[in-house]
Specification:
The chain is of the alpha+beta class. The chain is built from 6 helices and 4 strands, in the order H-H-E-E-H-H-H-E-E-H.
């Protein structure tokens, strides 16, 4: 019996030794869709200025928020007379775009089509959150609130165009 256990132990040791000698293949590097840089304050100011100009041109009062790709705030502006609730909504729209790497309108469209899963993920399912891209890489996100969803989206896209 002792001989059997000794043989099994020796076999396991030898089998285990060869397994330890194997090395795993190195991971394949994945290029993220975001840049190694983030939006600068100067760029954020230009984005907000363009968005604000569009809102003023149309007589809308809005909150415009710009975030880094990781969701950290860079700049937020509340135009005079904008409802207080728009501050959190604009932030949520920008966070949705940054966190999910999609415009917030993507989730609005999904909900309209009957897919409610997106609202359970914490996504803000309203138009007005857009990605800010430089050289096709994500450098930030903008969120706009204060008008209708269509108006918010229009103002956000004007802001996006200011950074291209």
């Amino acid at each position: 019996m002792k001989k059997t256990f000794a043989l099994i132990a020796t076999g396991l040791t030898l089998a285990g030794g060869s397994a330890l000698a194997q090395t795993a293949a190195p991971p394949v590097p994945v290029s993220p869709p975001y840049s190694s840089r983030v939006i600068t304050l100067a760029e954020a100011k230009a984005v907000v200025a363009a968005a604000e100009a569009e809102a003023r041109k149309n007589g809308w009062t809005m909150v415009i928020t710009v975030l880094e790709p990781n969701g950290q705030p860079v700049l937020s502006e509340k135009m005079d007379g904008t409802q207080y609730g728009s501050t959190e909504v604009a932030l949520g729209k920008a966070q949705t775009a940054a966190n999910f790497r999609k415009p917030s309108s993507y989730f609005q469209d999904a909900v309209k089509a009957g897919t409610l899963n997106s609202i359970f993920t914490g996504a803000m399912a309203l138009e007005g959150g857009e990605l800010l891209l430089v050289d096709s890489k994500i450098v930030g996100a903008i969120g706009v609130s204060g008008g209708t969803a269509v108006q918010d989206g229009q103002v956000a896209r004007i802001g996006v165009a200011a950074i291209k």
